[in-house]
Write a structure and sequence with these properties.
The protein is an alpha+beta fold and 820 residues long. The chain has 24 helices and 24 strands.
Length: 820
């Protein structure tokens, strides 16, 4: 073949984007259906979904010190700065115990429901009634109980249990149980305020303040698992700490705004009370210690007073002389000093035992109550108490295996060891001080023994009474001081902005936004379908596909045959299809000329499989040669499946087979047609050995005779993809045409002919693209020409007969956007 006919290697097969787009457009009905389904689903979800709201409250963690606190009182101490407090507060807010208190205080485990169109809505405070639960009574959990109000302040409880065993819970102790109930619908009538004792409900139903109900009103009462309710709100509470400041923003997202407001405000209230209680813990412990000592001292004081009065009356001694009074005063002072030392020693002994035996150190009374003023001991007691309070907080929020407990315990242990050493050294000093005081008391008592016996005894009783009176007054003063400090204490939690329903808007996606997602989701299934169909499609849908799959040149493109037979060139000579065959004729003539072929010329047509239009192209190529005034013969060499005779209204009784086996002469097997200058030799009867007939010497003789008789010889051969007959005839032809059909020929069918062409086994080979439909599902238009200087762009642009064209939606789009 001339180099002018050589075409570069085919491009690598890639995904056909245009085919994908037009395939997707062809699914427009599916797009409409999927989008409609998506919009319908979103609509159904929208009308069923409860709108959710988000409300918040803002608090500040303060470092409020008691204004009445002084270094002398030693009753309180500061157990952490603001930074440490904020983290502790956040941990407390997130703790399960904190949420349990809030849920318990608000009784959020009781649900007041009303039936709406699609669900039972939680109406909370909007319910006109309330349920009062019997202490330690068990209630059914997770089972709605219908309440129907009737006349005369009565109501009916209606149940419909599916099983005779239901789960129950005691909301006093939070214990769970199982109750035996009646299966099926049951009704029970009670008066408002009457105690109900049933397996599934123990309590009373009463109207809320200033509320009333109408006869026939229906509501539902449902008890929920306490732990599940706690977990629900624990998960939804969000805590933000802007810029690690002392400000905390608490927020909750839920469907009931009133519940959010109450839960947030109660959370802050519980936290505030808890912090104040812990802040007062040291003072509370001290007051308890003082009360205990006051009771003991008071009893002793009363006993001493009775003894003093009785002795005076019995001995008629009411006054003492100055020397006796002075001596008594000195002894009282010394004994008071001794008592103070003993109190300190007793406190240190108690503190030592407490440190050695206790695991928590949050109940240590104030050292000031025993007159302890050692700075090191006061500081270390404050530190160990601070760590103990911190540890107790973490125990309700952090796992026991956490390293934080190990760290706190090690700190407490270190402080405890230092404190025990301080106690040991201080105790030794107090023992020496006690010995010195005892020696002074001994000296004074020796003088005291010189007084008369009755005065000695009176002075002893009076001195003991005075000592107890001073201790009693001291404890009273300390208790009053502790009460003042406790009363003056305020919580470190300051509410800046309490939670409030201020017509907050819903936080769900807007309906329009959800519909946009529905539309986008509706587009996806058809697009995926179009993608996979295009990706998995194995057929040729346009000439560009063919060019990308093979290096064999494309000689012509033939349109779709619109008549009942194959003689379209003869029947409609001005049609676009006839113009396409004329273009092919011109290209073949140009090919013959370039190869310096003279005399009779042959062309062979074959294809991959049956049905691709090989016979249709053979008939019409032969017809256009004949119409040009050249004597042409069409030879049917498809000996296995003859077809030519039907279109020309001739018989197939005799044909090529008869000639090849020596039964008939060329003239006897040649038949005239209604087309001028065109003869046809049909295949004749089907032989048992078609391949052997085509390679015999008689085939050489047939071609030789035909060359002498005709200007053009058109050979219609079998498909090469099925049999090898056509390949046996290559030696007789000047040009070979391989017919492929749009939307029919599979891409893999070209592998055989591509291999043979690449190896040079076939020369002068070209493609004819048949049954091209510009309005087909993958048509792009094809208005450009090919080689040899003879374009066949006239297809669709020529002077052909007017044809009725059905303009489809896709064809209009192609026209508008000038696709192809």
């Amino acid at each position: 073949m001339n180099d002018e006919f050589e075409v570069s290697e085919p491009q690598q097969i890639s995904f056909d984007v245009k085919a994908f787009l037009f395939k997707a457009l062809s699914y427009w009905k599916l797009f409409v259906l999927c989008i409609g389904i998506g919009v319908f689903i979103v609509y159904q979800q929208n009308i069923r979904k409860q709108q959710t709201y988000k409300l918040s409250t803002q608090i500040s963690v303060e470092d409020d010190k008691n204004p009445l606190f002084t270094s002398n009182t030693s009753l309180t101490f500061n157990w952490g700065g603001v930074t440490g407090k904020v983290k502790t507060i956040i941990t407390s807010l997130e703790s399960r115990s904190n949420h349990e208190k809030v849920v318990d205080n608000l009784k959020f485990y009781i649900g007041y429901l009303k039936q709406s169109r699609f669900r039972k809505d939680d109406i909370y405070k909007a319910a006109p009634f309330r349920a009062g639960l019997k202490e330690n009574g068990y209630q059914a959990i997770g089972k709605p109980i219908k309440i129907i109000f009737e006349r005369n302040d009565t109501y009916r409880l209606v149940t419909n249990f599916e099983s005779n065993l239901i789960a129950t819970q005691n909301f006093t102790t939070k214990e769970k149980g199982i109750a035996d109930v009646v299966v099926g619908e049951q009704s029970y009538t009670f008066k408002l305020g009457e105690l109900v004792e049933l397996p599934f409900f123990n309590g009373t139903i009463f109207l809320a303040d200033k509320r009333k109900v109408n006869v026939g009103d229906e509501y539902f009462l449902q008890f929920n698992n306490f732990d599940q309710v706690v977990a629900y709100y624990k998960e939804r509470l969000s805590i933000a700490n802007p810029k690690n400041s002392a400000i905390l923003n608490l927020s909750i997202t839920d469907v009931n705004k009133a519940k959010i407001v109450d839960y947030l405000n109660e959370t802050v209230e519980v936290l505030s009370n808890d912090q104040l209680e812990r802040k007062n813990q040291f003072v509370t412990n001290t007051i308890a210690f003082i009360d205990e000592r006051l009771k003991i001292v008071k009893d002793e004081l009363n006993t001493n007073a009775d003894s003093l009065n009785d002795y005076r009356q019995e001995n008629k001694i009411y006054n003492l002389d100055d020397e006796s009074l002075a001596l008594s005063s000195k002894l009282s002072t010394l004994e008071l000093d001794k008592d103070n030392v003993n109190k300190k020693l007793a406190y240190y002994a108690h503190l030592k035992t407490y440190l050695e035996t206790s695991k928590t150190f949050t109940e240590v009374p104030a050292p000031a109550m025993a007159g302890v003023d050692d700075a090191n001991i006061l500081s270390n007691i404050a530190k160990i108490n601070t760590l103990s309070v911190q540890k107790s907080k973490y125990e309700s929020t952090v796992r026991s295996s956490s390293s934080i407990f190990t760290d706190i315990d090690s700190q407490i242990e270190a402080i405890k060891m230092v404190l025990l050493e301080n106690i040991s050294s201080t105790t030794a000093g107090l023992q020496r001080e006690l010995q010195f005081t005892n020696s002074k008391i001994s000296t004074a008592e020796s003088k005291f023994r010189k007084l008369p016996k009755d005065q000695q005894k009176l002075l002893n009783i009076q001195r003991q009474y005075s000592l107890n009176e001073q201790n009693y007054n001291l404890y009273l003063a300390k208790r009053s001081e502790a009460n003042i400090i406790k009363a003056a204490n305020v919580s470190d939690i300051l509410v800046i902005d309490p939670a409030k329903d201020t017509d907050v808007k819903v936080i769900d996606l807007k309906l329009t936004s959800r519909y946009v997602f529905a539309v986008l989701g509706g587009f996806l299934p058809p697009l995926l379908l179009a993608f996979f169909v295009t990706f998995l499609d194995t057929k040729l849908h346009n000439p560009q596909n063919l060019e990308s799959l093979s290096a064999i040149p494309l000689l012509g493109v033939v349109g779709k045959n619109t008549i009942d037979n194959n003689l379209i060139v003869h029947t409609k000579p001005k049609s676009t299809v006839a113009e396409a065959f004329r273009a092919i004729r011109s290209s073949l003539q140009y090919m013959y000329k370039k190869h310096n072929l003279s005399g009779s010329k042959t062309v062979m047509l074959t294809s991959s499989v049956s049905g691709e239009g090989k016979t249709f192209c053979s008939i019409n190529i032969a017809t256009v040669f004949a119409l040009s005034g050249k004597k042409t013969v069409l030879v049917g060499l498809d000996l296995r499946k003859p077809k030519i005779f039907g279109d020309f209204d001739i018989k197939n009784d005799i044909g090529v087979v008869n000639y090849l086996i020596g039964q008939k002469t060329l003239a006897e097997v040649t038949q005239k047609t209604k087309v001028a200058n065109l003869d046809v030799i049909t295949s004749g009867p089907i032989p048992p050995n078609p391949s052997e007939l085509l390679i015999g010497e008689t085939m050489d003789a047939l071609i030789a005779e035909l060359r002498e008789e005709y200007d053009y010889i058109v050979l219609d051969t079998p498909p090469v993809g099925l049999v090898s007959d056509a390949l046996e005839l290559l030696d007789y032809v000047d040009a070979s045409l391989y017919v492929v059909r749009q939307d029919y020929t599979k891409k893999g069918m070209l592998n055989l002919i591509n291999d043979k062409y690449k190896r040079g086994e076939i020369s002068n080979l070209s493609f004819i693209y048949n049954y091209y439909d510009q309005k087909g599902k993958y048509g792009y238009g094809y208005g450009y020409g090919y080689g040899y200087g003879y374009g066949y762009g006239a297809y669709g642009n020529g002077y052909h007969e007017n044809e009725k064209i059905k303009h489809t939606f896709l064809s209009r789009l192609k026209s508008i956007f000038k696709i192809g």
